[in-house]
Specification:
The protein is mostly helical. Helix content is about 70%, strand content about 5%. The chain folds into two domains: about 70 residues, Winged helix-like DNA-binding domain superfamily/Winged helix DNA-binding domain (Arc Repressor Mutant, subunit A); about 140 residues, GntR ligand-binding domain-like (Four Helix Bundle (Hemerythrin (Met), subunit A)), CATH 1.20.120. It has nine helices and three strands; from the N terminus they run H-E-H-H-E-E-H-H-H-H-H-H. A hairpin with a 3-residue loop joins strand 2 and strand 3. The N and C termini lie far apart (about 55 Å).
Length: about 230
Amino acid sequence: MTLAARKMQPLIVRSITDQLYGVLREQILSGALPAGQPVRQDTLAAEFNISKIPLRETLARLEQDGLVKAQPKRGYTVCELTSREAEDVFKLRLRLEPSAAAEAALLATAADQKTAQKALKELETAAKQHRTDLSNFNRVFHLSLVRPGAGRLTLHVIETLSVIAERYVRFHLHPLGRDTRANTEHREILAAWLERDALTVETLLVEHLQDTLEDLRSELDIKQPVKATLQPEA
């Protein structure tokens, strides 16, 4: 094996890991891998014809996202949707995201504004097409509103919270008409953001996130974790 070939090996492994991460992440978000179900590494390794090394890396990454959890002597299982986690995630988002978006509105460049406009357009298109990965477009739009003004650590925390929240967002958007309501609110937030109206941005974003949390409170069992078998948004 040449030195050049030896140097390329880590890149190939990372590529496999990235692809596997995308597949398993979507299966968890869609409910194809239901909450509470064990992640059978032998089965997955055979199905994708890969070694367990990239699979373990992928599962570790999914654990960081809050989508799977490792249990001693039992391997990984898909995390449950719980009211406690929803409260935790959205309360943290409420503390950080509205103020970060308000500051970003004041600092955004013309390029940043175009990025946010494009993100909303793609989100609305995904909603019209009833895309099963609609929550991913929702996450991208929300991050486009905070990225121009957030510091590195703040952005990292908000991105992490957004990833964890994505499964709850998909669960929230499932009832008919919720994506329409969300898009109306998104347009109002973006309009204020483009006008650099920081106060209105912060107020609207607080209301938007609070509405989502209130809906989740009414849908998630307060005492028992919910085993979600999600269907595509109708």
